[in-house]
Amino acid sequence: MQKHPNPMNPRVVGMDVLDRHVDPSGKLHSHRLFNTEWGLPSIMMSLIGAARTKTYVQEHSVVDPVERTMEHKYTSTSFTNTISVDERLIYKPYPQNPEKTAVIQEARITVKGVSLSSYLGGLLASTTSSNANKGREAMEWLIHKLNAEIEELSASARGSIRTPTAEAFVEK
After folding, report:
1. Is residue 169 part of a domain?
2. Beta strand segments in 65-170, E
3. Does residue 79 form part of some domain?
4. Burial group, residue 96, by CB count within 10 angstroms (0-12, 13-18, 19+)
5. Model-level pTM?
6. What is the pLDDT of residues 4-46, one digit of tens each?
7. Is residue 165 part of a domain?
8. Residue 167 lies in a domain
9. How many domains does the chain have?
10. pLDDT, tens digit, 9 for 90 and up, residues 127-155
11. 29: three-class secondary structure by DSSP
């Protein structure tokens, strides 16, 4: 849930949690809205007739601590009359080595009603694929960040839980 924002994808410029709850089976459900800066080339912007580069993406996530899985579904909510992007990411234990994580990514890109739609679809597919690599790097960055925070908290706790020493009892 702390993957965004991250240094690998600075295009996420805002995020709002619309709903978050734990269901009776212990799964964490989250519904968030991302405000992103697409950074599309000007030729693409003119093809879809867009003047703005800010877009919105809905994310629905489910974290299952029992199965050790996390699933994210992303749906673009901007330019939907021209472009729609639906993406699904699943993180789960790797079958041959449960200490590692397998990531499954699926994306469906639809371009309609614009000239050069196959070119635009190909460009969006390439961008989505590139973002998948950035997403993996972002998860690794997040894991390192969380490990550093845990170590810092552990060191802080060790430093604050001191046993009295002989010096503490010497009166001056």
Report:
1. no
2. 69-76, 83-94, 97-111
3. yes
4. exposed
5. 0.69
6. 677 777 778 888 999 999 999 999 999 999 888 766 666 666 6
7. no
8. no
9. 1
10. 776 667 777 787 788 888 888 888 888 88
11. strand
